[in-house]
Amino acid sequence: MWPFISQMNPDASTIAAGAPIEVDLAPIAEGQDIKVFWRGKPIFVSHRTKKQIDEARAVNVASLPDPQSDQARVKEGHDQWLVVIGICTHLGCIPIAHEGQYDGFFCPCHGSQYDTSGRIRSGPAPTNLPVPPYQFISDTKIQIG
Prior knowledge:
globular; three-stranded antiparallel beta sheet; 145 residues; alpha+beta; 3 helices; Rieske Iron-sulfur Protein
């Protein structure tokens, strides 16, 4: 009976496709971004500088195409860490970090520009870069998914 029940469980590739991943933040220097993959999607993890945080918070939220405060896009007490899905919300291209007019993310395909909080500032993209579900499991480690 056990083999029959066991065969109904999802296979390892199915489990891995949706499994949470852990990211060690310790080696990421201030001002640096890394890219990891979760569920086949690129995830940008940015260790923002104080200047980048201040610039993101100085923006008039009402002036944004997709209004959202910087505080709503980061975890409380961990303002220096930005975690976003690195897929342009226009046509699904992969933006480049630390490029463009706002020192955030720039999509070279059609010119969408995101700020240091991953919010759309100009270009054809309709919405901000999405924030994936994640949590801090220690001061130097996050779990995405």
